[in-house]
Design brief:
single chain, mainly alpha
Amino acid sequence: MTLLEIEQLEKAAKFIYKGLNVKNTPDKDNEYKKLIAKFEADELFRDQINAIAKGLSLKVVDVSYEAGVIILPLNQSSSFCFGGLTQLRKVLGNNSATVKRGSVVLAMITLLAAFFRDEVQFQEYRQAQQTQTLSNMSRLLLDICKSLQAQYHDDKGDIPDYLRQGWEIILTLPKVKEGQANANSVEGLIEMLTICFVKEGLLVEDASRHNEKAWFPTQHFIAQAERETATGIYEYCMQIHNEQLNKQHTEAE
């Protein structure tokens, strides 16, 4: 292998390294800009990057000068996969009675649904990042839990037990947190998750909101959400929630 070929591979690896640092953006890093320009112009360079990424169980899903390189794990077994439920429960406090599989899953679904409710809105969010407040997301979590509860009363055999345990926990929690963020209230559970996502560069706190905490998604969150909202459990829960909303609307007329 020639020195030139080695240098090319080093640049390909550096490209992936830049992309994995989600808080870094091309406007702050000239080397990053040059690597993106090379990616766009050099087909061999793109092939090398994709080959290295695949070997690391990663995938380059988007490249732009605005958001930089967006890289996602190929699957849940990737070492680069965002912690998963086990890691989130550890961060939230594994010993807490609130932090069970079902309650964390429902809170995660709520964060995804708060920003992305359907394909049309998803496309709109690519153009305009919109803020969601803590109170709105907390209200949505309660509404989703109530919808699942209502469906369970109609068909007890259809909803997984861990989800039932999750909504039973959440619906007994006080809505408003006391003191520092913790998982012992509805707002606290949502805020703890947003803190995790802010640290991962997936959400950004909206500093313009002085009266209430709020966040907006980064392009990395949008790319991750596109994959996660295609999973069966998200679609399953949101279908039940939407059916219950339509039923309530029909009964009110």
